[in-house]
Predict the structure.
Amino acid sequence: MFLKSLDIFGFKSFADRTHIDFADGITALLGPNGCGKSNVVDAIKWVLAENKVKNLRAAEKTDVIFNGTERRPALNVAEVTLTMSNENGLLPMEESEIAIKRRLYRSGEQQYFINNREVSGRDIIKLFMDTGVGKSSYSIMEQGQVSQILSSKPEDRRYIFEEAAGISRSKAEVAIAERELEQTRQNMQQIEVAMAEIKRSYDSLKIQAEKTIKYRKVKEDIFNYELDIALLRLKSFITDKDRHEKELEEVTKKRDLIRKEIEEIQNTISENTDKVQEMQRQVYEMQTELIKIQTEKNGKLDLANKYNADARNLKEKISTIEIRIRTIEESIDNLQDEIDEQEADLHSKEKQIAEAEKNISDFNDNINACGIQINQNNKKTQDNKALAAELDEARKELQKELASLTEDIVTMLDSKLKSAGFSEEAMSKAKANLEEAFSRLKIHAEGRKNVYSDYAAAKHENDDAVKTVKEAADAFAETEALIKNIEDAFAEYEKASPAFITEFLSPEGIMTKKRAVDQKITENQEKIASLSRENDRLQEENADLAAKIEEYKETLSKLRENKARMETQIQAAMQQASLLRRSLVSEQNALRTANEELDEQNRQSEELNEKIIEIQEELAEIEHRGRKLADELKELDAKIAESNSSVSGKKNKLIKMQEDQMKCQSQFERLSLSLNSADTEIRNIKQNFQDQHSRDLMEFEEHMFKITKPTAEIRELLNEAKEQLRSCGQVNLMAPEEFNEVKDRYERQKANYEDTQKSLDNLIRVSEEIKSKSSEMFLETYNKIKKNFHNMFRRLFNGGRAELRLEDPQNVLTSGIDILAQPPGKKLESIALLSGGEKTMTAVALLFATYQVRPSPFCLLDEIDAALDDKNVSSFVTTLESFANVSQYIVITHNKKTVMGASTMLGITMEESGVSKIIALRLDEDIKIGARLDKDNESFVEEDVPPEENAYIPPRPPKRIYNPDGTITDPELERIKKEEEERKAEEKRLAKEAKKAAEAAEAAASEEMAAETENNETEQQDSVTESEVQEAK
């Protein structure tokens, strides 16, 4: 038995809580129209997760709740519980008894339970997949569904065959796999779009990074070249300075000697000594001042040139800093977007982990509650066992007392029978006399009654009436005598009966004591049985609780694993967010530094501009002072010449000595100026290098003596490097770092794409395997049903022929199924042309053919015999009885023959209007006497039916090869890759051949063009020659 009981409360017309027990075999459900028979079927469908209101004969979902009558108010809840036996393990659950419950409130809220565990409707549907049981399986045949099976589209009939083949679950898995495939394809498209976006950035940044690396290399080369040039210039100036210092020392000695001789000559000239000396001193002072002015001018010019160079360098630096600021700002925006995404993801995961923690706490509470309940049950079981042991001891004492009483009864009975002289023969004779007396009295009374009745109905004279009255008096006297005989016979019977029986059966008698002991033993056994049942119930409850605890622990373990996984993800997300924040802070610091540097450079640029203007003003003032000193010096020279002209004697010598002095002075000034210029140049070289490169030039002093290339060659290399730098154009200085980040993202996205591709391949493979296996199972079941359908049709119709045909044998999993039937004496035709009874019998044949292949544990048949005549009803019930030992049948019917074929009858009545009640009655064999069905005893020979032709089963994908190194080789993927490589190689070969052909055609065209050009030139020369000949003539 599969169905054990059905409990209904508040569902449609079942206003009161109704309990229905189902028996093995065939159960007939009958009652007048409108009493609620079909509501039982609807209740079973509803509890099996039927949600289509049309299939429940309702307009809205809440219409199944009892809506009230004139005397009863409406209810707010409907509840149905279906209890099933699972001892054969048909359902994938460990419990031997399964209770499916569904509850619906008027608010629309509903609940599903399996053994009081709340589940979803989808879980109920999955539980019954491939079992032949369900809300829309062939285990429930309602009114009109038989004709619907036959009149529906061929593709709509597949569900019976799919359920029988056990591929409903596989079909659902294929649908899930197809949805996952579609989702995976969409994910791949999204990944491809993201990869395309990243690839564009990747390619662009790759070019920019290569350009930036080249830029950095050229900048480094320029730095090295400028370093070498600066070091060579520094070396040159240092060498010149040393040489000039030696020369200056020699010129100073020579000048001092000439000055001494001039002083001696001038001492000889007494008249103009003071004046000339004074003027000479002024000349010396002016010359010294002029030298200072010239030196100051050169220094200012050098400083102005330096300031101008610094201004140009600052302008370049400002431009570079502005580019770097823009790059940093873009990087900051990108980092901020990524941080926002990470924080949103982190918030979602934290919410999930909070829910997981709540679930873990709830499961821990449930486990503790189950443990407490188990301990309580164990304690109660021990108490019951102790009480049962006490009762068992008491029962043994009672049994001993019963044995003693029984022995006393036997002894006493034997003694009383002997003392009373009891004779069974005398008692039998007395009983016979008593029965004879009663019989004579009965016959006499009936005869007199008939005589007086006839007399009373006719007209009589007075004599006749007197005579009749006298006869009546005689009759009563005879009756009195007969009664006296009966009294004597009864007295004899009493004498023959043993008098001690009354004593035995009296309240104080021994039989009464025995019955009291029997009653105590029975009560004792019932108590022990009740305790045993209670212990069994407690053990079952403990087993259920232990199973729940294991289930809770398993779920708890999964929840903890999920929580740990989410915590790991959260930790990773937090680390990623922290890294992004650090990167953001670093970029913000870099931006702040760059802005500060830009402000500093702008400030320095403004200061340089002010200094340049100040230097230009100072240069103008120095030039004015120099011109003024030069004019004054010319005047003094003229005065000295005038004074010297008056001097006689040593004039020429003095002049010569003065000329030599002037030469020495000129050399001294030139060398002093050169030394000052050298010092200035050395300082400028160091300062310029410091300002331009922010490094001390003297760090590379050792390198100065390792330079072997000449300055001209280095300058050429420097110019080439600057030309390369200019050819680079605008450069993203952060491109290499950005490229590395984008490269990492691209590689991660590529790995994600490859993983998704593997998942897609696995899903395709799983889908193909399921389709192939389902096709095999479906075709095997279909061929069996096809054969059984033909033979069952012949058995029910006593002949004829029936066929099943696939509309599209090449697509087994989607093909429709045609049904052809040929009752005896007719042609093979479509079922649409059959009569109503023939259609019903054809559907019954298909139903039983399906049961032969995969019997449903139970079957509900709702008035499917309504269209059948008596003969077909007999055939239907006979076939039904032959399947009663493998399935449980509940038949709703009005036909007496169908009812008499059942072993149990359930009656549905409406004692109260609008409220259904159940009456159960078991039909024993003596009740069904005279209601036997006509059965055909002739032997039936089954015929073979060829399987479906041209049916195509998709091949299964080849098995994967598991390599020793842990990798998996898919032959199909390897074959596709090999074909792809061969195709690409063929394309390359064809491209090469096409290229060669194009080059050959181009060469041929070139040769033809050259030949044509040569012919044209020859023709032109010929024409020129002819014209010259004509002119000569």
